[in-house]
Each structure stands twice: as C-alpha cells, then as structure tokens.
Amino acid sequence: MKTKLCPSCKKEFSVMYRVKVDSSKNWYFLCKKCTEININGNQFYIYGGTWKG
Ligand SMILES: [Zn+2]
Prior knowledge:
It is built from one helix and five strands, in the order E-E-E-E-H-E. It is an alpha+beta fold. The protein has one domain. Strands 4-3-5 form a three-stranded antiparallel sheet. The site of zinc ion has 8 residues, from helix 1.
C-alpha cells in the first residue's frame, strides 16, 4: 500500500484528501484530520477527490 506525506502534520497516510484551502489555486493532499482542521470556516475550500494508496 502506498502512502503520501501530509504536509500539515508530517505523517504518512494511505488515504488523502485532495483539497484547495487557500487563494493560491494550488491543490494539496491532506489527511482526514488536517482537512477537517483546514476547512473549518474556510471560504477557499474545494474538495477535489480522495486519493487511496
Ligand atoms: Zn495531516
């Protein structure tokens, strides 16, 4: 099973969420926990799919 490193909490996960969380137009892969933290009240949040390793 493949994993990706979550740039927010620096841990590896086999399921990541592809999201936009700022105005930069960049996509980020965040873990479930960090996605929930980052989208809370976030006007820039766009969900782009789920990545599974
Ligand atoms: Zn994380």
